[in-house]
């Protein structure tokens, strides 16, 4: 058990180190000089050189990589080339939108997927199953930005229950949650559809196992056997998908953020790339990588919690 | 007064008859063995009594348990009966338990389910003690051996002291010594608790000295049912006689004249790294094969027996050149087996005829696969026709897919696939263990015929001692990675010298002597 944790932790640290190096190298070889981009095409060579010195771009790559990593470790992500403000502050501000949105969507998706997947597996081949499968097929097929626009049309423009976009900040948590609701639903539904399908097939596999027959021979009803013996055994693939989905929700919400004018991480990274604000790009990507790796680590811990065979 | 009384039980699935009027009675404290080949309907009979038939099945007739007809009992009431009045034990102990729950939780669940006020933990402990399992309740199934898991399943089945216990091939997946213990346990439980036991098995020998009565089933009918001694003495139905003869069938091997060694195994050691106990611990090594040496002469038929975990599979993989060895050497005709030149002189036939063929290919392609080792022959059609004819199939069978063949026919195809490149050595890895007795007898005869026609040399690996006895010249007995006995088959079986071999032979179930032809 301890050995397992230790191995996972080591692999987490190693992944982070490798990721930081790759990110740095990729940004390094990417075309475009941030200094000349900031000053425009008519900039004087000496002004350019001065700016490059100020930004530290004239230092050798190894030195810049070390400075970047040690800075991050102490919470200093550098200064944005474009906005001349602390990158750490910018990210923190955006994170307060993206993280709650991702969690909100994940909770919604789980709340929808579990009842749907369990129902479909328990009533395999019957009307309920066919309905759920058709619904999830639709959920997987419909692009989430289009679904988001439909939500806006219905709930914001027609019914006027919710704002069509923007984010008022967390001063009033109720208002903030309401303005995150439509984006969260738009993000959650396709995820829920995938999750429900995975849960269904994994549960159907589990229900075909011998231990379910044993459970029925003990006198458990079909439903009791599913709940007590099937569900937990079906959970491992579901946890894998949940982990992947969280990472996606954190970073992949760019389009939804655009549709709802949300100041999230996705938009920040999109803007920074188009403005050659490399220091911001590096930092946000690193943060996302960090999030993904940590979520993977948590998923691994969840496996162990579910399956005693992994505790050794 | 019988515990359970089955009258004219008929079951059909999608209009196809599965059971055609089965009638059986079991008295308290009585052991009824239900025997027959696969597909004879013995498991379906058990499932019908449990009320756990597949959805598509339609049942008629009457199954009387304590004055109640189980076939007309609603599902809700059946749930209360299962586990309380009827307990069931299954074939595969490795998968019959929920891997995520402790054994204590799984045994106490059945008690709590039928008696919510009972001290379930205490009674679970008692049930496990009764089946002779002295392990903490907090253990998980993966920490137990197959025999221990089967004891947990039995503990669950008897925890509520049911009137009827159904055991569906409870020892088929177990080693002989474990099998003997489990049979002993079941017999004692039936006697001490006064339960009725319906024991389903394909193996007559297993029930020969255990059952009070034996019912022989074929294709959905009970063809003969009689007290055990009487059944073995008379065998009124020809089918019973066929089963009996097939069970003790001895293939007629041509004599072996000693010849120079073909396969040489010298001091082979094969070990696996164990998981670390803690992050800085040294990796332990598990030695699965520990200094094994033997030869197989050209034309010799060598048997290898041992219980699960003894290292015979590991040794087999090493002989086939699939795994590297950590010490020693294996050569075929002087060439190391890891060399492709040696690979083309060796073929293997596996245990499960259902999973060892790609279902999407036709027979012609399946059995010509080994030619990739040697290069295609000049006349592949001739080779295919010869190989199919040699194993008793028709050359036209080459155009069929594998699903068109029965288990026995598939095993013939597996042998054809091995034979087609005329290898010097064939490895039979539990090759007849999954087959019914009559089919098994045919395959053993086929192997003897092929030995005569082609001068086969083979290594026959099995846990089934009686089969090894009938088809080999010499036998090796393996225990904990070592060969503990090596000698001519008859000598080892008649006068085993090593205590382990003696234990194995004592534990193996025996059929009574053949009755005089009536």
UniProtKB/TrEMBL annotation, chain A:
Recorded GO cellular component terms are: plasma membrane
Superkingdom per UniProt: Bacteria
Q: Which GO terms describe its molecular function?
A: dipeptide transmembrane transporter activity
Query: What kind of membrane protein is this, topologically?
Result: Multi-pass membrane protein
InterPro entries according to UniProt? BPD_transp_1_N, MetI-like, MetI-like_sf
Q: Where in the cell is it found?
A: Cell membrane
Principal location class: membrane
Xref: Pfam families: BPD_transp_1, BPD_transp_1_N
Domain called ABC transmembrane type-1: residue spans: 95-299
Q: Which UniProt keywords apply?
A: Cell membrane, Membrane, Transmembrane, Transmembrane helix, Transport
* Name of the protein: Glutathione transport system permease protein GsiC
Automatic annotation (TrEMBL), chain B:
SUPFAM superfamilies cross-referenced by the UniProt entry:
P-loop containing nucleoside triphosphate hydrolases (SSF52540)
Query: What keywords are assigned to this protein?
Result: ATP-binding, Hydrolase, Nucleotide-binding, Transport
One MF annotation (Gene Ontology) recorded for this entry? ATP hydrolysis activity
Which major enzyme category is it?
hydrolase
Q: Name one GO biological process term.
A: transmembrane transport
InterPro entries, sorted:
AAA+_ATPase, ABC_transp_ATP-bind, ABC_transporter-like_ATP-bd, ABC_transporter-like_CS, Oligopep_ABC_C, P-loop_NTPase
GO cellular component labels: plasma membrane
Give the EC number(s) under which this enzyme is classified: 3.6.3.-
Question: Which compartments does it reside in?
Answer: Cell inner membrane
Bilayer disposition of the protein: Peripheral membrane protein
Start and end residues of each ABC transporter domain: 4-244, 263-505
Which branch of life, at top level?
Answer: Bacteria
Q: Write down the NCBIfam families for this protein, in alphabetical order.
A: PRK10419.1 (NF007739), PRK11308.1 (NF008453)
Return the similarity comment. Belongs to the ABC transporter superfamily.
Q: Per its UniProt record, what PANTHER family does this chain match? A: D,D-DIPEPTIDE TRANSPORT ATP-BINDING PROTEIN DDPF-RELATED, TRANSPORT ATP-BINDING PROTEIN
Its recorded name reads Glutathione import ATP-binding protein GsiA
Q: Which organism is it from?
A: Tropicibacter naphthalenivorans
Per the record, the gene is: gsiA_1
């Amino acid at each position: 058990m301890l050995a397992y944790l230790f191995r996972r932790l080591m692999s987490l640290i190693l992944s982070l180190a490798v990721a930081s190096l790759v990110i740095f190298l990729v940004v390094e070889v990417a075309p475009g000089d941030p200094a000349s981009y900031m000053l425009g095409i008519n900039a004087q060579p000496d002004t350019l050189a001065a700016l490059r010195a100020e930004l530290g771009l004239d230092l050798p790559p190894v030195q810049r990589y070390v400075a970047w990593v040690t800075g991050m470790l102490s919470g200093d992500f550098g200064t944005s080339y474009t906005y001349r403000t602390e990158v750490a502050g910018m990210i923190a501000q955006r994170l307060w939108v993206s993280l709650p949105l991702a969690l909100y969507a994940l909770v919604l998706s789980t709340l929808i997927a579990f009842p749907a997947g369990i129902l479909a597996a328990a009533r395999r081949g019957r009307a309920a199953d066919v309905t759920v499968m058709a619904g999830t097929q639709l959920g997987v097929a419909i692009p989430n930005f289009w679904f988001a626009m439909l939500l806006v049309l219905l709930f914001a423009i027609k019914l006027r229950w919710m704002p069509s976009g923007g984010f008022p900040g967390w001063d009033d948590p109720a208002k903030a949650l309401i303005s995150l609701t439509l984006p969260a639903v738009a993000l959650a539904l396709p995820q829920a559809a995938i999750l429900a399908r995975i849960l269904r097939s994994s549960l159907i596999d589990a229900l075909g196992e011998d231990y379910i027959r044993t459970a029925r021979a003990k006198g458990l009803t079909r439903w009791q056997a599913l709940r007590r013996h099937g569900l937990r055994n079906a959970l491992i693939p579901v946890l894998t998908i949940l982990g992947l989905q969280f990472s996606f929700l954190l970073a992949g919400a760019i389009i939804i953020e655009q549709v709802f004018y949300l100041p999230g991480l996705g938009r920040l990274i999109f803007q920074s790339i188009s403005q050659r604000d490399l220091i911001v790009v590096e930092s946000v990507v690193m943060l996302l990588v960090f999030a993904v790796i940590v979520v993977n680590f948590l998923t691994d811990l969840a496996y162990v919690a579910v399956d005693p065979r992994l505790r050794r | 007064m019988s515990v359970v009384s089955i009258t004219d039980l008929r079951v059909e699935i999608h209009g196809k008859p599965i059971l055609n009027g089965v009638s059986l009675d079991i008295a308290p404290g009585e052991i009824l063995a239900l025997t027959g080949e696969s597909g004879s309907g013995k498991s379906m009979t058990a499932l019908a009594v449990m009320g756990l038939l597949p959805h598509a099945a339609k049942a008629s007739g009457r199954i009387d348990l304590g004055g109640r007809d189980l076939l007309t009992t609603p599902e809700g009431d059946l749930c209360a009966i299962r586990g309380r009045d009827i307990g069931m034990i299954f074939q595969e102990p490795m998968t019959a338990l929920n891997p995520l729950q402790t054994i204590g939780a799984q045994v106490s669940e059945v008690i709590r389910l039928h008696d919510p006020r009972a001290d379930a933990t205490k009674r679970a402990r008692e049930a496990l003690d009764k089946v002779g399992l002295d392990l903490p309740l907090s253990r998980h199934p993966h920490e137990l051996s197959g025999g221990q898991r089967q004891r947990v399943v039995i503990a669950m089945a008897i925890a509520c002291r049911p009137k009827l216990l159904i055991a569906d091939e409870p020892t088929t997946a177990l080693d002989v010594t474990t099998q003997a213990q489990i049979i002993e346990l079941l017999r004692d439980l039936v006697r001490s608790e006064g339960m009725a036991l319906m024991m389903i098995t394909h193996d007559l020998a297993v029930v020969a000295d255990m059952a009070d009565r034996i019912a022989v089933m074929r294709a959905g009918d009970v063809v003969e049912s009689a007290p055990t001694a009487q059944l073995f003495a008379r065998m009124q139905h020809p089918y019973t006689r066929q089963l009996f003869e097939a069970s003790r069938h001895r293939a007629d091997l041509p004599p072996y004249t000693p010849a120079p060694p073909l396969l040489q195994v010298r001091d082979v050691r094969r070990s696996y790294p164990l998981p670390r106990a803690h992050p800085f611990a040294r990796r332990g090594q598990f030695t699965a094969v520990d200094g094994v040496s033997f030869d197989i002469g050209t034309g010799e038929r060598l048997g290898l027996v041992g219980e699960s975990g003894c290292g015979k599979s590991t040794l087999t993989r090493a002989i086939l050149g699939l795994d590297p060895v950590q010490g020693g050497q294996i050569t075929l005709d002087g060439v190391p087996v890891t060399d492709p030149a040696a690979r083309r002189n060796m073929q293997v036939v596996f245990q499960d005829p259902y999973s060892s063929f790609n279902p999407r290919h036709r027979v012609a392609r399946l059995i010509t696969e080994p030619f990739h080792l040697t290069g295609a022959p000049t006349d592949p059609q001739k080779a295919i026709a010869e190989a199919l004819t040699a194993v008793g199939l028709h050359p036209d069978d080459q155009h069929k897919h594998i699903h068109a063949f029965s288990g026995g026919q598939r095993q013939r195809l597996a042998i054809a696939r091995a034979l087609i490149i005329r290898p010097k050595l064939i490895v039979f890895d539990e090759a007849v263990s999954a087959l019914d007795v009559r089919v098994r007898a045919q395959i053993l005869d086929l192997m003897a015929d092929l030995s005569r026609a082609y001068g086969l040399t083979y290594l026959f690996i099995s846990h089934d001692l009686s089969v090894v006895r009938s088809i080999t010249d010499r036998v090796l007995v393996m225990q904990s990675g070592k060969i503990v006995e090596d000698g001519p088959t008859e000598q080892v079986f008649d006068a085993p010298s090593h205590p382990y071999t003696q234990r194995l032979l004592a534990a193996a179930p025996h059929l009574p002597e053949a009755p005089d032809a009536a």
